[in-house]
Write a structure and sequence with these properties.
single chain; alpha+beta; Molybdenum Cofactor Biosythetic Enzyme, Chain A; Molybdopterin biosynthesis moea protein, domain 2; 4 domains; 6 helices; 27 strands; elongated; binds adenosine monophosphate; binds magnesium ion
Length: about 425
């Protein structure tokens, strides 16, 4: 049986980043940039005013005071019509270019304008003495032509969208979201809006996995429920193999009706591993399918990566966070793909036992002296309710051990990438 680290390594070596395509900037949030962005302009593109006020020559001010002749009015989007000479000032608005000769902007609150008989205005200034550059942002202060601004592999957040817009990239090279099919299996499952009869339960995993996919940057495709019957399963698997990823929930362990591994193999999916030394989630199955049936519906032209996730809801959730998310990150071309644990201080005593490391639903919080983690009350892999009290999983290594308050415990936060 593979360890978690071995299973992650197998995923990373098996999944290859998909081919980038041109994506509209509007649709790029959350994707991974597949090109390096170098600035082709200076920002700001000219020396600009950072305040509404008057562009002046510092040499004209005597301890912050002066009366100057107003020779121009420059609004944003326009250019100065003349330089500012000695004894002169230009009224200027935020964002407008600084006229030649001026070396500071005095804000409007520190001025008042008096009209004089000859029709020209004069501005009286009384301010804290400015220095050269006060309220001016010089050309190229934020970016210069040739500066490397964004590396390939960067996840696009709202601020990246803004900078790309500033640089004029209406389209960018990125790997499009993978289409990820979700197929729930089990005779006992009924849809969420149905009332379960005796022996039945609602299909909670499908909705949860669709949500996890959306949060991990995938494009989720619902494939519904397949009964534990070979022909039904076979048909649904065929449909799912048209996606970039196929996630099946349930039917992967040792029960009489656990038909998923054999049906996946019958469909030509190559098994890469089955079972990982982990709790919850031991029966997880991973494989690759190389011959997609209908190329026009496949978005990448690559293989389909297939995960059989254990049906117990917490197993399914944890396996997604550990393994499926890693595969998605790798597919999207992210630089760091494996889950990143945070070392946190355990707040309570916690006994763990067994031959597998346990990923335990827990609350990770930031105390004054650093991160701290508290396992929630958890009744095992079928207890999904515990996860709504949690925001992370605390990793308790294999073996019988009583962890003490204050012990450093690795924890993995459940969060958006
Ligand atoms: P299985 O992996 O198919 O043996 O299922 C293990 C447990 O998970 C059983 O108690 C199932 O009823 C439950 N289970 C399977 N699929 C789902 C699902 N889609 N939603 C909620 N529970 C499920
Ligand atoms: Mg089942």
């Amino acid at each position: 049986m593979l360890t978690v680290a071995e299973a992650l390594a197998a995923i990373v070596s098996e999944v290859t980043p998909a081919a980038p395509t041109a994506v509209a900037l509007r649709d790029s949030l959350g994707l991974i940039l597949a090109e390096q962005i170098v600035s082709d302009c200076d920002s700001p593109p000219f020396d600009k005013a950072l305040m509404d006020g008057f562009a002046v020559r510092i040499a004209d001010l005597d301890d912050g005071r002066a009366t100057l002749r107003v020779v121009d009015e420059i609004t944003a989007g326009n250019v100065p019509s003349c330089p500012v000479d000695s004894g002169e000032a230009a009224q200027i608005m935020t964002g407008a270019p600084i006229p030649n000769g001026a070396d500071a902007v005095v804000r409007v609150e520190d001025t008042n304008v008096t009209p004089s008989d000859d029709g020209t205005n004069h501005v009286n200034i009384e301010t804290h003495p400015p220095s050269v550059g006060t309220n001016i942002m010089y050309q190229g202060t934020a970016m210069r032509v040739g500066d490397g601004i964004l590396p390939a592999g960067r996840r696009i957040r709202p601020q990246e969208v803004g900078v790309l817009a500033e640089l004029g990239h209406a389209r960018i090279a990125a790997i499009p979201r993978p289409r990820i099919g979700v197929l729930a299996t089990g005779d006992e499952l009924v849809p969420v809006d149905a009332t379960p009869a005796a022996g039945q339960i609602r299909n909670s995993n499908e909705m949860m996995l669709l949500a996890q996919i959306a949060r991990a940057g995938g494009d989720a495709v619902s494939l519904g429920i397949a009964r534990d019957k070979r022909d039904e399963l076979r048909e649904c698997i065929q449909q799912g193999l048209q996606c970039d990823f196929l996630l099946l929930s349930g039917g992967v362990s040792a029960g009489k009706l656990d038909l998923v591994p054999s049906e996946l193999q019958a469909a030509g999916v190559n098994e890469l591993f089955h079972k990982v030394r982990v709790k919850p989630g031991k029966p997880i199955w991973f494989g690759r399918f190389s011959g997609r049936p209908s190329p026009e519906t496949n978005s990448s032209g690559g293989p389909t990566y297939v995960f059989g996730l254990p049906g117990n809801p917490v197993s399914s959730m944890v396996c997604f966070e550990l393994f499926v998310r890693t595969a998605i990150r790798r597919y999207l071309g992210m630089e760091f793909v494996e889950p990143k644990p945070i070392k946190a201080r355990l707040t309570v005593e916690h006994a763990s036992r067994g031959d597998r490391p346990t990923y335990y639903p827990a609350r990770l919080e930031w105390a004054n002296d650093g991160p701290q983690v508290t396992p929630v009350n958890w009744q095992g892999s079928a207890d999904l309710r515990s996860t709504v009290e949690a925001n992370s999983m605390a990793l308790f290594p294999a073996g019988d051990h009583v962890h003490k308050p204050g012990d450093a415990i690795e924890s993995i936060e459940w969060k958006e990438d």
